[in-house]
Amino acid sequence: MRQTILRIIKIYQKYLSPDHGFIFANSNSTIRCRFYPSCSQYSYESIEKFGTMKGVAKSFIRILRCNPFSKGGVDPV
Amino acid sequence: MGFLYHEILYRPLFNLLIQIYNLVPGADFGVAIIIMTLIIRLAFFPLSIKALVSQKELTKLQPKIKELQEKFKNDKQALGQATMQLYKEHSINPFSGCLPILIQLPVLIALYGALRNGLKPESLNDLYYFISRPELIKTVALGFIDLSDKSHVMAILAGALQWFQLKKSNTMQQGQSKETLPVNKNKNTLPSSDISSTMNKQMLYFFPVMVIIIAWNLPAGLTLYWVAATVFSILEQLYVNKKISKN
Predict the structure, then answer these.
(1) How many domains are contained in chain B?
(2) Across the interface, which of A23, A26, A53 has its CB nearest the CB of B196?
(3) Percent helix / strand / coil, chain A, rounded to 5
(4) Hey, is B191 helix, strand or coil?
(5) Which 2-21 residues of chain A touch chain B by CB within 8 A?
(6) How many Å lie between the alpha carbon of B20 and the closest alpha carbon of chain A?
(7) What are the φ/ψ torsions at residue B94 (nearest 5 degrees)?
(8) pTM above 0.80, yes or no
């Protein structure tokens, strides 16, 4: 389960992500994460560190925070 | 976890949709989807306006960003971190963030779940006790689109509207980069901005084509949601463009 989720995040980052992925990389699009590390990286690290349940919960809250009203910026796991 | 997803994201949306269907006169599922889209997008309206306006504020920071880009030429990670720090210091952030995009997913999955079975009575078991069960859900919208079946016309319409939406948001960004041009005295920075503008052009066609390919075989109800949401984004963009050009 945990490995599957981590693998899905990696695939997402490699291809689809507006920040990391090669398909949309370099586009001037403003559709991207407001934080460093990005939400996907944050999810990856927190699932690795805290396990599936707690990691996913933390990721979910991070994504809720990642909206135009949050300050964004550096926000490590 | 599938349970949590089902309870927190899918079920509320599905119930909202059926409740709207119950209330809409004429019992048209297409109209229900459009109204649900409107409600969701209106709930996120402050978010999207904030994002569009803060893109504008970015222009003021452009020289500092260029400085950082020079400084961290070879270290993409450090550049990302430093840029984010800079945004934080000036309490602006030009990016929309992840929430506005990811919120589309549960909506699409809820619609897919609802339409996959052609709205068979079994799928109504997910209704809350206080939502009345419609006897029968007609999936034909506006008299001629079968929402549970694929529709190539709707797919192409979704792609075309997506193209128009990207084009509108691009013209706004181009307007910005023209304003910042006088700042770019260093000619070395020009090629990189050229590259990103070709990338933008690729994106302008790539994404709509992808929308058409994905929508080609999906139930028309999902495509209808995409069409309604895109129309809403276009209107938002036009509203913000107008507001900004006034200031």
Answers:
(1) 1
(2) A26
(3) 55, 5, 40
(4) helix
(5) 19
(6) 26
(7) -80, -5
(8) no
Gap between the Cα atoms of A71 and B194, Å rounded? 30
Is residue B54 less than 8 Å (CB to CB) from chain A? yes
Task: Provide the domain limits for residue B14.
Answer: 2-246
Residue of A60, A67, A70, A74 to mutate, testing the B interface (most B Cβ within 10 Å of its Cβ)? A67
- Would you tell me which residues 90-119 of chain B have a C-beta closer than 8 angstroms to some C-beta of chain A? 91, 93-102
Q: Which two tokens stand for residue B112?
A: 């897919």
ipTM of the complex: 0.84
Per-residue pLDDT of chain B (247 residues; tens, 9 = 90+): 678 777 877 888 888 888 888 888 877 888 888 998 899 888 888 887 877 777 767 766 777 777 888 888 777 778 777 877 787 777 777 777 888 888 878 788 877 777 765 566 667 777 888 888 777 777 777 767 788 788 888 899 999 998 898 887 765 555 444 444 444 434 444 444 444 555 566 677 888 888 899 889 888 888 999 999 999 988 988 887 787 777 6
